[in-house]
Every structure is written in structure tokens, then in C-alpha cells.
Amino acid sequence: MKVFAIADLHLSFGTDKPMDIFGAHWEGHPERIRQAWEGCVSNDDLVLIPGDISWALKIEDAREDFAFIDALPGKKVIIKGNHDYWWSSLSKVKQALPASIMPLQNTAATFGEVSIAGSRLWIDPDLKIENESAEDRKIWERELTRFGLSLDAMPKDARVRIIMTHFPPISLDGKPGRPVEIASAYCPDVWVFGHMHLGLMDYQGFNRTIGHTRFEFVSADFLEFRPKLVFDTCSL
């Protein structure tokens, strides 16, 4: 089984939110995602989508976006991003999602020898990547609790551990945030994340190995809308 990742799909089939207002590189991006995905992912593979999946405000308005993802090859695991306003309770999300899409919220998912944990996180006050407020700090602390619950849900005998978060857990120069310290006891092999977009700075610095963990920045526009291979169980 191959494990791919791509964040920040920002789909809007049920809402009027074209992404090309953020730059010409977003023109026709759903079709570009579809073509690239079908070209590299098989039905036996796993694709991680670390947040900002749909612009819909209500879950019923996101159904066309879910259908688009469902029609693509492979099993998919998703977490909530800061723009996924449609994501309400986990039970409602599970009811609305097609069978090929699994949501993570205070939980983990295991596929053979690979276990996946993660959460949205929020603006890390220590990394200084984005400006933050007092309210942001409250959300941050709450997200750390949720992150810990997900990590605890991974099987202790998992051979491969992959973490997915929406917000970056490290700075561009490799400074680790508190989530990295929390996760260190679980020895994650790979950590995928997104949230940041082209046009502000060069995000290549996010892609690095710190200790045992390989960090992969997988925002869709950074990847030119092609899912990135982050692990292959054939290497075990």
C-alpha cells in the first residue's frame, strides 16, 4: 500500500467560491487534482487530506465535494481545517461522508501496519508563522488536548506511525512546536500538514527530517495539485 497526502483542496462544487481569485495557478484546480490523482493513486492506496477540504458552510452544501473525493481512487482520511465550517459533530460528519472517506477527530485510524493520528491544531504562538490573538491561544490549547487524544488512540504495536495536522508543527527554519514535543513519545515516522499557500514565501524549508520524523508540507498548490507519495509499505 502506498500512502499519499494532499491538503487544502478548497473544493466548492456546492458553493460559489472560485479559487482562481487567489491567483491564476488555481484555475481549474479540481480537474487538475482529479487527473493527477487518477494518474498516481490506485484503489489499494491511502490518501491523507489534512484539512481545508470544502468551502461549504453547511454539511449539506459539501455533499458534491464529498462525491468528488469519493469518486477518486483509494481510501481517504481527512481532518478538519480552519476553513471547514461545514464540519460539525463527528457523528454528523460520519453520516454525511461516503464509505471511502474516514474522518479523524480525537481518534486514530489503522490500515494494516500503518496507523494515522492527527488534528487540526491552530496558530502556534511559539513559531511566529502567523499573528495570533488571545482567542487564538484558547483554541490552540484546546487543539493540543484533541491532538493528544488522537495520539493515544494509535495502537501501541503500530509499525508505521503517520501524523496529519492542518497547521504547521514546525517553523520554516526547523524549530519544533509543542505538538512535536508531545508527539515525540510516539515516535512518528512521517508528519504531513498544509494550511500555508504560495505567494507569501518559499515553504520548501518545511520539508525536513527532525530526529526520527520526516516532515512533509503538502498544501495542494505547493504540490501543483498532485498528491505526494509520503510512504510505501513495500519498503518495510
Structural class: alpha/beta
Number of strands: 11
Largest sheet: 6 strands, mixed
Count of the domains: 1
CA-CA gap between termini = 11 Å
Uncertain segments of ≥5 residues (pLDDT<50)? none
Which second-level CATH architecture applies? 4-Layer Sandwich
Using only C-alpha atoms, the radius of gyration works out to 16 Å
Task: Explain the overall architecture.
- It is a single chain.
- With 236 residues, this protein is α/β, with parallel strands linked by helices.
- The chain has one domain: Metallo-dependent phosphatases (Purple Acid Phosphatase, chain A, domain 2, 4-Layer Sandwich), CATH 3.60.21.
- 22% of the residues lie in helices and 21% in strands.
- It has five helices and eleven strands; from the N terminus they run βαβαβαβββαβαββββ.
- It has helices at residues 29-40, 63-70, 90-96, 134-152, 178-183; strands spanning 2-5, 46-50, 75-79, 101-103, 108-111, 114-119, 160-165, 190-193, 208-210, 213-217, 228-232.
- The strands form two sheets. It has a six-stranded mixed beta sheet with strand order 5-6-7-8-10-9, covered by helices on one side. It has a five-stranded mixed beta sheet with strand order 4-3-2-1-11.
- The chain is globular.
- The termini are close together.
- The model has no long low-confidence stretch (mean pLDDT 94).
